[in-house]
Design brief:
rbstp2171, two-stranded antiparallel ribbon, alpha+beta, 120 residues
């Protein structure tokens, strides 16, 4: 068997968010740590509705679904802090969806969904 080699550096994707007023905000989407990922997945599990046999029957609450992930990993490069909730709330849904997809991929959350689909 070949030796496995992994990086312990968090992956990042640079992002520029342009405002209609000509302003721009430089950010990075940062991969979640293992602990952050587990906490995020715990929160997501609480959104699901389960049947009598424990199978997922749907999502009970969509509010903040994308924001919960972006709140953890969309970082303002100037302040080195996550962007504010107010900033996320005002973001166009198409932009938020695109950023959410990148955040999922960086933290391997898209793989969790694929694995769950295989188990169904």
């Amino acid at each position: 068997m070949e030796k496995l080699v992994f990086s312990v550096d968090l992956q990042e994707q640079e992002v520029t968010l342009n405002g209609a007023d000509g302003s721009s905000l430089e950010c990075v989407i940062r991969e979640l740590t293992g602990e952050e990922r587990d906490s995020y997945l715990d929160g997501m599990a609480k959104r699901f509705k389960f049947g009598a046999k424990g199978e997922v029957q749907g999502v009970g609450n969509f509010k903040g679904l994308h924001m919960d992930l972006l709140r953890l990993c969309l970082i303002d490069t100037a302040t080195k802090k996550p962007v504010t909730n107010e900033f996320l709330k005002a973001m166009p849904s198409s932009t938020m969806s695109a950023l959410f997809k990148v955040a999922q991929e960086l933290s391997a959350l898209d793989q969790v969904s694929e694995e769950e689909a295989k188990n169904d």
